[in-house]
Amino acid sequence: MANLAMMAMVQSVLEKLDAIEDKLGEIVQGQKNDRIGKILGAFKALMDLYPTFKSEGELYEQANRTYTDMQEGLTQLHLQIEEARRKLSSAPSNYKELVKQKILKNPFSNPFKPKNVDYYKELYTEFTYDIQLYNRLILLSDVVLHLKKGDSDVMLKNHRKMYQYCMDNLDCKFRQAMRYIMDRQITEIYNIDNYNKNYYEALDGITQKDILIEYNKEDVKLLNLKDYETK
Known about the structure:
Order of helices and strands: HHHHHHHH
Radius of gyration: 25 Å
Shape: elongated
């Protein structure tokens, strides 16, 4: 009877912890929305004010403030991405690890019916979404840098941060665990790989190499040089 009472008490505590975890999830989502809203709000404010600037000095001053606000929001979003990655790093890469984690987490549950796969699935989906969102939001900061005549090396440095982060952390072990958890091809990570590679190479090409333009002759509209020689 004492053992049964103890098991009932432990189960009750676990249920309460699950409820608290759900509530914390709502709080975290609200914090993420605030961070994204800060980035988008700062950018939209700059775009709304753009026609009202009477001098380049006013534009540069506002662009500096906007860029600072956006970078603060991006830094917070990056920390959130890293927190999710740390949680995902404990994800099992096979069924044996999954059952072992289930037993350690709750020894009174049925180890052959693990339920924490859904937790990792949701976390993985949010993690990869946030990385892709971060990459798109960086493009907005590029626009602000351009308006304030920012150095293209700064743009490259901003994009290199996430590029290097993915290279360092989305390794073979991580991908193997995610393939097991999702039980499918992890196309989201492959999309991130392609985006980082293509955009990084594009920026590197703009800042360090000549630009090569290729075209088909039949796609080019010939112009009358006499009409355009003075333009």
